[in-house]
Design a protein that fits this description.
Blueprint (H helix, E strand, L loop, with lengths): L2 H13 L5 E2 L3 H18 L12 H4 L9 H8 L7 E2 L1 H4 L20
Antiparallel strand pairs: 1-2
């Protein structure tokens, strides 16, 4: 089993009982998981691969799962990067809307 597959299984077991499911698009999910593993190798923590990492103290809000996931999934059925979704989102029972960035602008680096 690859590192990505191991991480997938571990995260699935932890988050599904809480109502957070991986997106049904497995190819995209594994690309994001590979990004998490790459960020862990580069920075020492699994920063959301959809955001730029800078410093663990600054990025604490976007270490996956980010602190915005709960509200994003509650409101849109998906987190910002579409890694974690609700069961209804995966079953196409709710619209797949764009999830806006909740992270404060002062924390976003360019």
């Amino acid at each position: 089993m690859s590192k990505a597959e191991e991480l997938y299984e571990m995260l699935r077991k932890v988050h599904e009982p809480k109502g957070y499911y991986f997106n049904k698009n497995k190819e995209m999910v594994f690309e994001l998981i590979e990004g998490l593993l790459l960020n862990k190798e580069r920075y020492g923590y699994m920063c959301c691969p959809c955001r730029l990492a800078s410093d663990r103290n600054i990025d604490v809000d976007v270490i996956c799962p980010c602190i915005y996931r709960e509200e994003d999934v509650k409101e849109y059925g998906s987190c910002y990067c579409n890694l974690y979704v609700s069961k209804e989102w995966n079953e196409d029972k709710i619209p797949h809307e764009y999830v806006p960035e909740r992270r404060p602008p002062e924390k976003i680096i360019f």
